Structure formats: C-alpha cells, structure tokens
Amino acid sequence: MDDETPHTEADFGRVCQRDGEIGTFLHHLQEGAAMGHKAVASEHPNYGQQAVRTSMGRLSLAGHIRWVKEHITAEDNTKRWVTRTYWSGKPRSVEWWTEFVEARHGRDVTSAYQGGLAHLRGPDSDPETDPSAAEAAPQNPDRSGAAPEESPAYRALTSLRATDPRMSLSEADCRALEALAAEWLARGATVTEIVRALTCGLPDTVHNPGGIARTRLERKMPPKPSAPPAVRARIDRAVMMCTMCEEYLPGARLNKGLCVDCYTELVPEAAGNALGALPATFLPAPRHAPQVDVTERVDALRRAAGLKGDKA
C-alpha cells in the first residue's frame, strides 16, 4: 500500500502463529507475484493449500487482504476482467477497504496492464521476438576447446564468401564483426539485407574486406524501431471477491472480504446469530395452537350470510 514503508514488519498481533507465518510470507512476496491458494502453497515450505486457504480467510477477517475483480477497458475497445490481490501489512477496517476498492473505479492502468492488453489484440499485433537477440553476444570457446556456437549474425557474415568472393572474411573478422551484425538483426534487419549492404557497389578490387564490412555495418546501421504508442486503459468497474472461495456473486454482500458460507465456516457462531436475528414473521408458528371447532365455525359463517346452517 502507498502509506506503508517497504520491507517493514507487518502487524500480525491479532492472528494465530500459523496465520502470522503465512502472512509474513505474503508480506515479503514481490509486487505482481501470484497469491492464489495453490500458488502460495506450492512455494510455502510448511503449509499446504487447505491451510493457506483458511489462513488467508482469517487474514481477510483481520483486515490484511482483499481480492478484487477489475474490469479493464482500453482505447482500442478491448475489454477483460482481471483479478488482483491487494495486501496490507497493517490491518485495515472494512470501511477503509470499501473506500480503497471504490477508488479503483476510473483508475488509469495503462502501464500495469500494457502487456496483457497487447496480447488481447491478437498475435498479429504482438511484437515478434527475434531469435537472434538471445545470441547477440559472441560465443567464446570453453576450456575444453569446443568450437563456439554459430549465431545467426555469425552465419550471415560467413555467407558473404558465397555471395561475393571479394568479401571473403576470415574467422577472426567474423568474430570481431558479429556484435555489429547481431545489432542489425536486433533492429529488425534480415540476413539478406545485411548481405546486400556489404556486397553491393564494391570496387573492382577489395584489399581489406574486414575493414569495408565494419565501415558499412557502422554507417548503414538501421535505426532502432520506435516503441508502439501505449494503448490507454482504465478500470471501469471494481468489485470484491471472496478471499477463500474466489467467487463473485453480483449483489452479494461480503463480510470482511468473505461470502456468507466462508464467513460461517471460519466463524461458526455467526450461523446461530443469524437465525436469532430473523423477524418473527419468518419463524415457525407455535406447535400448541388453540383448538377450533371447525363445524361450529362453518355454521356461524353460513348464518352470517343468511343461509340455513346444519344446526338451525
């Protein structure tokens, strides 16, 4: 939370030891880490999924955690629901959490959700990963004397010999120029474009192919691709979800971040209190109601209507 100092100890004075241990674990997770029951249980060394689920429910009762479902709308009309876990090392009141969730409405979340929104636009709009980028740095021989792995940039330079014998580079030239060629690939150039740039318009005699290759690679380096404009995104709806069962029921009222069933599971006495608070009209009628002579009652109603009763 904004008003908390990073790396400070959380306040778990109102929870049991196990809940405090799991709370401490959650408190030290990095921003954006998965905080579902399964994810936390898979990382925690001492507790399984059911223990984590129960403790997170108690931490919700204590005011440390809330799960919020946020509806994100972007300028390109892509929409999606995102579930976020909000954590506070300090215990917060129900009113504080309510105001926090309400304040999420209309929040600009362009920077936080930019990667996911790009994915929604489809594979054609996603930036392609250049396989040469991971191999941009020259590979050095290991101590065993094994030959270094050939990168796409290195292979582009060695192919010059077959394209134009005047640009036959030595192995030392290829290794020295590999980083420059890799930068071309990282900026979106193809191997064919590199070869064309290094072989077109050569003089009749080339005395220093390595020097010419370096000069052309440096002077004709393509520009860095500009970053695509950010697609603005905002939260147009934010609602709390149950911290234990992860359910969201429209119109359902949560009690300290828990639905009725999960709250009753953690606070069993709440079920009895709820029954005792029912209005009298919803309670069963007394079992010993006064006995009524049905025949006499029917005769009375007939006489009141001017009809002849059975006993008249």
What does this structure look like?
This protein is mainly alpha-helical and 312 residues long. Helices cover 40% and strands 9% of the residues. It has helices spanning 17-27, 37-43, 49-61, 94-104, 110-120, 152-158, 160-163, 171-186, 191-199, 209-219, 260-266, 269-276, 294-304; strands spanning 65-74, 79-87, 233-241. It has a 3-stranded antiparallel sheet with strand order 2-1-3. The chain starts with 16 loop residues before the first helix and ends in an 8-residue tail after the last helix.
Could you name the key traits of this structure?
about 300 residues; mainly alpha; three-stranded antiparallel β-sheet; 13 helices; elongated
Summarize the structure.
With 312 residues, the chain is mainly α. The protein has 13 helices and three strands, in the order αααββαααααααβααα. It has a three-stranded antiparallel β-sheet.
Helices and strands, with pairings:
Elements: H1 17-27, H2 37-43, H3 49-61, E1 65-74, E2 79-87, H4 94-104, H5 110-120, H6 152-158, H7 160-163, H8 171-186, H9 191-199, H10 209-219, E3 233-241, H11 260-266, H12 269-276, H13 294-304
Antiparallel strand pairs: 1-2, 1-3
Helix pairs in contact: 1-3, 2-3, 6-8, 6-9, 8-10
